[in-house]
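retry 2 of 3: previous attempt timed out while embedding fe (ii) ion. Reduced batch size to 1 and resubmitted. Inputs unchanged:
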Amino acid sequence: MFDRQASEIDKLRQELSELQSLSRDQARTMSPSFYTSDDFTALENEHVFRKEWICLGHVGEIPNPGDFFTTELAGEQLLISRGKDDAVHVLSNVCRHRGNMVETASSGNRRSFVCQYHAWTYDTDGQLKTAPLMKTAKNFDSKTCRLPNLPSEVWNNFIFVNLGGEAEPLAPQLKTLDGLLKNYHNDERNLLFNDEAVWNTNWKNLTENFMEGYHIFATHPKTLQPMTPTQLCKKVPGEERWSAYLSYYDAAYPPRGPFHEDMTEDEQNHTVMFNIFPSFVVAVAANYTLYLCLRPAGADKVAIRWGISGFKSDPNDPEVVDYIDLCKAFNGEDREKLETLQKGQNSRFYHHGPLAPDDLEGTIWDFLHYMGRTLGADRDLG
Ligand code: FES
Ligand SMILES: [Fe+2]
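retry 2 succeeded.
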């Protein structure tokens, strides 16, 4: 059993390395077990999701002191709170007493977090405030007891965590991407909608799908194709940390707005589609931002925390409601394809296939290179 696991992982790591040595003309997909192997998913959790900067959500989910939401990443329970000091904290949501989960609600507002097991109570920044009946316990000092505060960064209103604590600071690695996004003023956009979902597909299938424009004409003939057709997709050069393409609007599509006054005409006419590796996929359109924070929930399931922000502030504005409905419609179209894709990937008759030209699937090639740099056979994973 162990040998089989080892060889499956080794084969995939070897294949990732081989892929990196191919020329762009030879670009192809990975073997299907890349998307179906439980063992490979465990490797990704350990060496990708625990080591990299992972986006957990949007600051607009916790606008006020005491606001919080909870989530899970690579088996860790996390509590994301807005402290009384107004700072964002990403805390381990595991009680320092006997290890129960502290906060069990998915979101809300609290003056303090109370573990329901023996009522140890923590401040909004994770510091222990009270521990009932513990005064005479000799090996206990409440001052040195707190929920671990994990390394986090807020970039463009998005909250990132680095569980391993050893990743290089994120923001400096995104400078070129910042240049592409500058005039869109994502930080001035208000969170208008957010939700969670689980789809029956590997996290990489959804990451790749979001990042390629090739499928738009076939998967979204009535929703996205009339707006941002496949034929107008334009890849931009990516970097170590991210990949992107521009999705241009059809000239016949009605004008959109409101735009930020800094935006050039060209910027008004396209959406910047990007992936901050491994799995934070975003569409920054002229007027709205759609983002999906993706985490594996097993080999064949992806946990999605997603949302929409924009310059408007009323989530019930009819135009906003229309946009949210449009996003739900094309997400539904993607979900259908990605869940049948996952079934197809269990086949022993499929090996791998060619990738379309750069403007259409070059971002997948970038992503596979990232996976190779991170998990390839030549990497020492310790
Ligand atoms: S486990 Fe939390 S108070 Fe005991
Ligand atoms: Fe799609």
